[in-house]
Amino acid sequence: MAELMSESTASRxxxxxxxxxxxxxEADSCFHDVATGVYREQSYCYDEDKTWAENLANGLPQRxxxxxxxxxxxxxxxxxxxxxxxxxxxPFGVAAGPLLSSQWVALAASRGYDCLTYKTIRSHYHxxxxxxxxxxxQVNQQLPASGPGCQEPLIASAGxxxxxxxxxxxxxxxxxxxxxxxxxxxxxxxxxxxxxxKAIRGGGGGGSGGAPILAITNSFGMPSQAPERLAEDIxxxxxxxxxxxxxxxxxxxxxxxxGVSFAEDLALAARTALAGGATALxxxxxxxxxxxxxxxxxxxxxxxxxxxxxLAEVVRSGGGGGGGGGGGGGDVPLLxxxxxxxxxxxxxxxxxxxxxxxxxxxxxAGINGLSRRVDLPGGGGPALGPExxxxxxCGDPIREAGLRFVRAARQVIASDNLGLGLVGVGGVxxxxxxxxxxxxxxxxxxxxxGFMWRPHLGTDFQRLWAAAxxxxxxxxxxxxxx
Length: 482
What we know:
Blueprint: H1 7-10, H2 52-58, H3 62-65, E1 81-83, E2 86-88, E3 92-94, H4 102-110, E4 115-121, E5 134-137, E6 154-157, E7 164-167, E8 173-176, H5 194-200, E9 215-218, H6 227-239, E10 246-251, H7 262-275, E11 281-284, H8 301-316, E12 334-338, H9 346-359, E13 363-366, E14 370-375, E15 390-395, H10 399-415, E16 421-425, H11 431-440, E17 444-447, H12 449-453, H13 457-467
Parallel strand pairs: 3-4, 3-17, 4-10, 6-14, 10-11, 11-12, 12-13, 13-16, 16-17
Antiparallel strand pairs: 1-2, 5-6, 5-9, 7-8, 9-15, 14-15
């Protein structure tokens, strides 16, 4: 790996970088003003006080439907980029997670995103975890991907989606509508943590003209619609795309199902996606599944190769496909989604990426959120309850970890001549962050948290992309730039 994260880097404050740092754009009026409503404590497209199943049943919130249509700058076709045999109007998209169904895919496609990942599906219906699923965090620094700093618990803050969280009798986590809850306009004060929240969310720490810092933790348990519902909805989602856009379907398996191994269950999920017409599959190896060596599955090269070899066979057998730019079943490309690697473990990353390419993967996407223990303020114990002491941290504080992954992966891909595309994910909450990832070596950049809280992020990037001449000086992994 090019650089090791020093202690000073790991504790560096999150910088709310201005959208206008690239392409010579100096006038704030060129782009959407991030200080006038892009960030709310409440997501514009997801009700945090409702479960995944309730959000799915209710559809997009009314506040989202009331948004005016977005105005987008479309690149001329000769400036489109090629990714996994698809032509994309831009290298920006939405990662697995926020796109619950065809409604959310259509929303993203209309708001400036071109590489869209349908939320991770299973071979069977799975409701996921109970509330709370999303909590805001008191974090104002970049978080390390590994090392002693990972052991320190993070603190949840009162706000929309959690309101005031209390741990009651029997260890159950309750959500109460107490004092300190924020409002849809982000004007809540929070009696317990008001000063810290003000600094974290930008009231005092964002700087003049800077965007508030967005830091959340989420714990959903990878819920999934039933196969029969997915068979109906995936084609509807694909039909919402325009030329220059693609949809990836994220798949995972379930451990411990009677009579079915994880690999067999993963193959069943892939067949569901292919039957719905998926033109690209992302294999989610980044959540806490355990490989044969008792490490995270994505860090276990033999397990990665075995799983992908089986999935490649499913694709070759014509389990689905067609439409879009991906062709028939045998032409459906595979991506793997991974989490962060320890900062010094370039060799481990190399073994995983080599195994993935050998088994037939066409690209790698990373990172997923960073796993951390999250506690209540004042020593109140695990914020999500004793059954879920740790959860995934997302948003601004994981951007440096994501960029480190992209830089290291680009170097491995270049030095070993691997035929892998590279998707950068993590902490992308402003348009300039997309450019940072592209310059670090990503072929495509995706956002999840930024999509959910910043309704103009996609179109902000499209304006920035146009101003930059539809190009970025990407690191080639060999010390040069393309």
